[in-house]
Design brief:
Elements (H helix, E strand, L loop, with lengths): L1 H26 L14 H12 L14 H13 L4 H25 L6 H19 L5 H21 L6 H15 L6 H17 L4 H25 L3 H21 L2 H11 L2 H27 L9 H21 L12 H19 L2 H21 L6 H17 L3 H4 L6 E4 L5 H4 L11 H6 L6 H11 L4 E4 L12 H10 E6 L6 E5 L1
Helix pairs in contact: 1-4, 1-5, 2-3, 3-4, 4-6, 4-14, 5-14, 5-15, 6-7, 6-8, 7-8, 7-9, 8-13, 12-13, 12-14, 13-14
Length: about 525
């Protein structure tokens, strides 16, 4: 019987790993070798990563308001291989790693017994929940949801794996918490709640709290030390704190003035598309967690009491509430900000698999339950667009057209590629044309309009007037930006630059210095 269970587990593991690989290939299409597309934010992070490989300092020579670890994760692979291939390999490893951790958690909850049909549910649920909001991938939230799943795996191993030495658990949670903090600090709530429950577990089990705390701090230090050493060596700590911490607070506080929070309350009842596709999965995590664990308690009524069943209920609800709070309070409402909800939704699926496993122990119900589990997994895959490549193909075609359009620049700017700056051009422009922005704010108009940074328009005015920038690329005519850029900047451009090339359908306007 044990050999049969092990065989089923290996088959299940293989199928789920294939699912995770398919997910990376089909849904992470920003970097996938199957498609020609860079997505929305991915080219920004790849450009900053590439700048690091060229010796530029993040937050000083090139600015983006995300954490330094995200830029290193996009930059270090480019030392080894050009383009987005390295970033895609990292995404593939995260996808497979998340799958294996979900299977391991399922085994913990089911005391080593894992049925192939049951295992498909939490795995498919995780990828489906993420797929709805991934929009091509290589977002900071994609990295953070993986780190949250890893923290969940550590906690559930502590609850159900009966480990003898948990210092490595505390160390691992420290590593994961600092990694999230240095990628996107507002995603910390999922890992933060997990750490709080781990502290409660340590106290309940009467383990050496101070040793555990020391291991946790060691994990924090292992991640933070080399990154801050790099920032100190490049004299960019202050710039990092300004752009990553303070500017993001300005970005979020500005959203309140735009009625963001009132809109979120209205979405609960409005039935809008954003509410339908984004809010419902969050509430599903809460409802499924509560109902699932209650039913689990009923299924366990005549069985030995499980010491951490109540803890699992509390943790699943707390995790869902924390992630929901991070999603709707600390962001500005872009779809990718909902990627972290994949973690609490997956936990609800894990709880449901335990109930299904118990039902399968009844031979009369086994066949029906297996069919139901496979049907639920198929429905989740369809609802989550796991294998829908239409959007990927459309993006690929749009990207191909962009390359053809942008390549008209190549002969014009080839001689002086470090003296180019774009205003309001699509974010992928720099990466497609293998050009570094001449000014550190490569998305200047977005920074000004979103209230990120201080006196950006005036700083650009000083920069453009004191530096010999040969090429300026506008998506529209310069006069269209009056009121965004300063009048003095636009007057200086009109006096010092001449239109050299206009793209088809107003795709771009290339201005060359007199």
């Amino acid at each position: 019987m044990k050999k049969r269970e092990n065989w089923l587990y290996r088959v299940c593991e293989g199928l789920c790993v294939l699912l995770s690989i398919s997910f990376a290939l089909l849904r992470c299409y920003s970097n996938s070798p199957l498609f020609l597309d860079l997505g929305t934010d991915s080219p920004i992070f790849l450009t900053v990563g590439k700048a690091i490989t060229l010796g530029k300092v993040p937050y000083v020579d090139i600015v983006e308001n995300k954490g330094p670890l995200l830029f290193l994760l996009n930059g270090l692979p480019q030392y080894l291989m050009p383009g987005a291939t390295g970033a895609f390999i990292l995404e593939m490893l995260m996808s497979v790693g998340a799958c294996l951790m979900i299977l391991r958690m399922a085994r913990y909850l089911q005391k080593g017994r894992l049925h192939i049909a049951c295992a498909l549910i939490p795995v498919t649920l995780y990828y489906s929940a993420i797929s709805l909001h991934l929009s091509g991938g290589n977002y900071c939230e994609e990295y953070d949801v993986f780190l949250t799943v890893a923290a969940m795996a550590i906690l559930l191993r502590s609850f159900y794996g009966k480990p003898k030495n948990t210092l490595w658990h505390a160390f691992g949670l420290g590593v994961l918490m600092m990694a999230v903090m240095l990628i996107k600090i507002s995603d910390i709530l999922g890992v933060g709640v997990t750490v709080l429950f781990y502290i409660a577990y340590v106290l309940r089990e009467k383990k050496n709290f101070w040793k555990e705390a020391g291991a946790f701090i060691g994990g924090l230090a292992v991640v933070a030390a080399p990154i801050f050493a790099y920032l100190l060596a490049t004299n960019s700590v202050g710039a990092m704190l300004q752009e990553y911490i303070l500017s993001n607070f300005s970005h979020v506080s500005g959203a309140e003035d735009a009625g963001f929070f009132a809109q979120r309350v209205n979405m609960l009842f409005s039935g809008s598309d954003y509410a339908r596709y984004s809010l419902q999965p969050v509430w599903l995590a809460l409802i499924a967690a509560v109902v699932g664990v209650i039913l689990l308690k009923i299924c366990s009524r005549n069985q030995p009491k499980e010491s951490y069943t109540g803890w699992l209920l509390a943790y699943s609800v707390a995790l869902a509430v924390a992630v929901m709070a991070g999603t709707y309070v600390s962001t500005t409402g872009y779809g990718q900000h909902l990627i972290p909800i994949g973690a609490p939704i997956m936990l609800s699926g894990l709880i449901l698999t335990v109930m299904l496993q118990r039902l399968m122990e009844n031979r009369q119900l086994r066949g029906v339950t297996q069919a139901a589990a496979v049907g639920v997994a198929a429905l989740l895959a369809w609802n989550g667009n796991l294998f829908l490549v239409e959007r990927s193909l459309v993006s690929s075609e749009e990207y191909r057209q962009s390359i053809e359009t942008y390549q008209e620049f190549q002969e014009e700017i080839w001689a002086d590629r470090d003296s180019v700056f774009c205003v309001n051009m699509p974010r992928k422009w720099y990466y497609i044309n293998d050009v570094m922005p001449a000014y550190k704010y490569m998305n200047l108009v977005s920074y000004i309009q979103n209230g990120v940074g201080e006196n950006c328009a005036e700083a650009f005015e000083e920069f453009i007037m004191t530096n010999d920038i040969q090429f300026l690329v506008f998506q529209w005519e310069p006069e269209d930006y009056r009121g965004i850029l300063t009048d003095a900047t636009l007057d200086y451009i009109a006096e010092s630059y001449v239109l050299d090339m206009a793209g088809s359908d107003s795709d771009f306007n290339l201005y060359v210095r007199w």
